[in-house]
Amino acid sequence: MGNSRRRFVIALWALGVPWGFLARSMAAQAPMPLPPRSSKDKDDDPNSPKVDTKAILEANQKDIKKSVERLFQLASELKTEVEKTDSVLVLSLALLKKTEEIEKLAKDIRSRAKG
């Protein structure tokens, strides 16, 4: 019994070793990915269009203000819905959808505020 196990393990090893070498040689032949371009490379390009960062920041701030107003409106609506329903007995599907929408909007505001 021990002899058959030993033969089985040796056979598995004998089959696995060539596959391992084949896989290693194939990986060695794969081309190396190019490194990403740094921001210095982008700034040095004279053909690149100039970006008006002030205008972009102002537009971003307007979008954040609109999103915050919408967030406040959704939070107010959620508050009134919670006050109407007894959440111990019934969990409203509309209530869940509104909370998901609030979460999504809050994450969007946070990502815009970070830049």
Provide a descriptive summary of the structure in words.
Helices cover 77% and strands 0% of the residues. It is an all-alpha fold. Helix 3 (53-84) packs antiparallel against helix 4. The mean pLDDT is 77.
Mean pLDDT: 77
Shape descriptor: flat
| Element order: H for helix, E for strand | HHHH
Major sheet:
none
Task: Identify the notable features of this structure and list them briefly.
single chain, 115 residues, mainly alpha, 2 domains, 4 helices, 0% strand, flat
Helix-strand blueprint:
Blueprint: H1 2-29, H2 39-44, H3 53-84, H4 93-114
Helix pairs in contact: 3-4
What is the structure about, briefly put?
The chain has 115 residues and is mainly α. Helices cover 77% and strands 0% of the residues. The protein has two domains: 1-32; 51-115.
